[in-house]
Write a structure and sequence with these properties.
By secondary structure, this protein is mainly β. It is 7% helix and 48% strand. Among the domains are: 33-114, Thrombin, subunit H (Beta Barrel); 116-202, Thrombin, subunit H (Beta Barrel), CATH 2.40.10. The protein has helices at 2-18, 321-325; strands spanning 27-30, 36-41, 47-52, 56-61, 66-71, 82-86, 91-95, 99-104, 110-115, 125-130, 136-141, 146-150, 155-159, 166-172, 177-182, 186-191, 197-202, 207-212, 218-223, 228-232, 238-241, 253-256, 262-266, 271-276, 281-287, 297-303, 306-311, 315-320. The longest helix has 17 residues, at 2-18. WD repeats lie at residues 159-200.
Length: 328
């Protein structure tokens, strides 16, 4: 009898902790009927970039719900490996295997191209990012190398911070720092001018997510097995680790809520969670809108008190953060 009661309590706890709560968005709009392969929301949520089969690309105005710019498959690389919408400089970067295109937004004119290759002759572009001021472009490759192009000086330097596919690049300009993550299981903070490493943290399996807070003081690192940690950006010290009952859990994306201890994560599919990084506890979880088992979350941004999410079905939903965290 006692054993049966203990088992029942354990099952109840497990179900209670893993079942997402019913949370409703304040708004919802579907921008594409086709499956979205890649997508990005602008930092202010006013523009939306979608790549669908073809590939074909469309830039939307999320206020008027109209297309600002579109590119056909004849104008784009055969296989799009990375995209960056940089609204402050009105640029759109589209990367193929070894080529980065620079498009003016919203005119849709091709500003130029940059041919880039990894150290290994078979390496292909795996990641792409741009500095806040638009002057630096960082390109990660499948062999673990990273190239940094300076648009002002027209110079490009290449470094080898990893030994495998680069999955995340963050540029910390005021510290001359790059924070990169890779499938080699290493998060590396290094000098963008010399390539010298400030510190590294190694994990048991390949990394699935590396995010940096807006305040540039914390890094969230998740591997694809069971370890998710918050690090101090200055020295890589582990500040805390996420805790949960399930044996394995990994995340595709993560986003720090500015000026709070809260962190938002997404699973490989459609579940979102809010965590208290000071304790490592999961405070709430919920699902984005889905119409098939294959729906995934492609991007999310925070604009003031609103979380915006983009799914692979082309759906953008708005969530009011103050309402969601009021009782946490």
């Amino acid at each position: 009898m006692v054993r049966w009661l203990l088992v029942s309590v354990m099952v109840f706890l497990l179900l209670g902790c893993s079942d997402p709560t019913s949370t409703h968005p304040s708004s919802r709009h579907q921008y594409s009927d086709a499956l979205v392969l890649r997508g990005q929301l602008s930092y202010d949520g006013e523009q939306l970039l979608l790549v669908v089969e073809g590939p074909n690309l469309a830039l939307w105005d999320t206020t008027s719900k109209r297309v600002l710019m579109s590119l056909s498959e004849t104008q784009l690389p055969d296989k799009i490996r990375a995209i960056v919408l940089h609204k402050p400089s009105q640029q759109l970067l589209v990367a193929g295997d070894e080529l980065v295109q620079f498009w003016n937004v919203p005119e849709g004119t091709l500003q130029g191209t940059l041919r880039a290759s990894g150290v290994d002759e078979l390496a292909r572009i795996s990641q792409l990012t741009m500095s806040d001021n638009g002057a630096l472009v960082a390109i990660g490759f499948t062999d673990g190398s990273v190239s940094i192009a300076d648009k002002n000086t027209e110079k490009m330097n290449q470094f080898m911070p990893h030994s495998s596919n680069v999955i995340a690049i963050h540029i910390i300009e005021d510290r001359l720092m790059m924070v990169t993550g890779s499938h080699d299981g290493v998060v590396n903070a290094w000098n963008m001018q010399t390539g010298q490493s400030y510190y590294q943290q190694e994990y048991a399996s390949r990394l699935s997510s590396v995010s940096v807070s807006n305040e540039r003081d914390k890094i969230f690192v998740a591997d694809s097995l069971k370890t998710q940690q918050v690090l101090a950006i200055d020295d890589g010290q582990v500040l805390n680790e996420l805790a949960y009952i399930t044996r394995f859990k990994w995340f595709r994306q993560a986003l720090f809520i500015p000026k709070t201890p809260w962190l938002i994560t997404s699973t490989p599919k459609s579940e979102l969670s809010i965590w208290d990084t000071s304790s490592g506890k999961e405070m709430q979880s919920w699902q984005i809108d889905t119409h098939s088992s294959g729906t995934t979350l492609l991007d999310m941004v925070i604009v003031d008190d609103t979380l915006l999410t983009l799914s692979s079905e082309g759906v953008v939903e708005s969530w009011t953060l103050s309402e969601m965290i009021a009782d946490l």
